[in-house]
Specification:
This protein has five helices and four strands, in the order αααβαβαββ. The protein is of the alpha/beta class. Strand 2, helix 5 and strand 3 form a beta-alpha-beta unit.
């Protein structure tokens, strides 16, 4: 990819505002518990492990992981999504670290047991 085309669509807040309601609709959110169950089984995860949810969006997986006792860091570049995820986390009394940063710049070597995208 040439430099002038790098990140054009996904760095546009308008894109996420337009497609967010479709990407994060109620049906897709409802799939999260089963998706996390399958990931836990596939990766042999155990509560307490440190998990990074990279490009977490509105936190549908981050929230479910925190409900199940994992230490979660949720990273996304879209402030609007992080605000929604943070509000849901606070409402449920969940402890999740939210980080607003582009996934291409986020780096914490050795900080996580698993990174999900």
């Amino acid at each position: 990819m040439t430099e002038h085309r790098r990140g054009v669509w996904h760095e546009q807040d308008e894109f996420w505002q337009t497609f967010g309601p479709t990407i994060f609709d109620a049906e897709r959110r409802g799939l999260s518990p089963d998706e996390i169950t399958r990931l836990i089984e596939l990766l042999s995860l155990t509560p307490g492990q440190r998990i990074c949810d990279l490009c977490c969006g509105v936190g549908r997986h981050s929230l479910e992981l925190a409900r199940r006792g994992f230490q979660v860091t949720a990273v996304d570049r879209t402030e609007r999504y992080l605000t929604e995820a943070r509000a849901a986390s606070e409402t449920e009394g969940l402890s999740i670290e939210f980080v607003q940063e582009d996934m291409r710049d986020f780096c914490r070597p050795g900080a996580f047991d698993v990174i999900l995208n």
